[in-house]
Design brief:
Order of helices and strands: HEHEHEHEEHEHHEHEEEHH
Radius of gyration: 21 Å
Shape: elongated
Distance between the termini: 63 Å
CATH topology of the largest domain: D-Maltodextrin-Binding Protein, domain 2
Structural class: alpha/beta
Helix content: 40-55%
Strand order of the largest sheet: 2-1-3-10-4
Number of helices: 10
């Protein structure tokens, strides 16, 4: 009987430990993936949970969440978070803006750096490039959506369209590194991690577009406390250097 009780107690403890150390699913949009992955070790050590990180465009994540995909925490654009909260997919009031990033211009390492110091120079660089890569706006990527409108606004959409190399997701800079495109446009934080390319600089200030990212808890989160713990980590001072190293900054309060 004593052996049975010991075995039962051991089984209970093992089950309790497994429950405590359950997986926590995190959905991240584009630029925030690298930040979250770098903070994962500290998060796992602090909470005992294993973080499972999945990445997609903001539009892609919105469609997946609306379709019923289970998750604990989403790091996505504020507009998408608000929409999902209105649909009952996000805990109302759980949204916290954590970072923002601007769009940059990228070329292959060793290639001449185009002048992008002002709007007219930027236009000349785009028109002069043989191919221009950016995120396909149809995929829901925020930078691709913005750039499509910007090309119209600058009156160069017709010149860009026949030489556009559209990326469905992931790093636009991969197309530059592989030689599939000459010049690329993407969020700076998604340019810096790619080897074999060079960040020319940000878009000129008067046409720069910042994408803000917010973290929020799922209404069906299995690990809501762990999700809030990660939000605290993302907004804490220990994450500041991680964001800066990836070309990101804190959003204005």
């Amino acid at each position: 009987m004593r052996a049975s009780l010991v075995l039962a107690a051991a089984s209970f403890i093992a089950a309790a430990t497994a429950a405590h150390a359950a997986d926590m699913k995190i959905l991240t949009a584009g630029a925030m993936k690298a930040v979250v992955l770098e903070l994962v070790p500290a998060f796992e050590k602090e909470t005992g949970h294993k973080a499972v990180v999945d990445n997609d465009t903001a539009g892609g994540l919105a469609r997946r969440i609306e379709g019923g995909e289970a998750f604990d925490l989403a790091v996505i654009t504020p507009g998408v978070v608000n929409d999902l909260a209105a649909k009952g997919k996000i805990v109302a009031g759980s949204r916290v803006n954590v970072a923002r990033v601007g769009v940059g211009i990228v070329v292959k390492e060793g290639a001449p750096l185009p002048d992008v110091s002002n709007v007219e120079a930027f236009k000349r660089a785009l028109i002069g490039a043989k191919t221009v890569a950016y995120i396909d706006p149809a995929s829901g990527g925020s930078s691709g959506i913005y750039l499509t409108g910007l090309f119209d606004k600058l009156g160069i959409a017709a010149e860009i369209k026949p030489k556009a190399k559209l990326k469905q997701g992931g790093y636009v800079a991969d197309l530059i590194a592989s030689g599939e495109a000459e010049l690329g446009l993407h969020q700076i934080s998604e340019i810096l991690p790619v080897k074999g390319v060079k960040l020319v600089g940000p878009l000129p200030a008067e046409i720069q577009n910042y994408t803000t990212y917010a973290a929020a808890v799922s209404t069906d989160a299995k690990q809501p406390d762990a999700a809030r713990a990660l939000i605290k980590l993302l907004t804490g001072s220990s994450a500041d250097s991680v964001l800066k190293a990836r070309g990101m900054e804190r959003p204005p309060s």
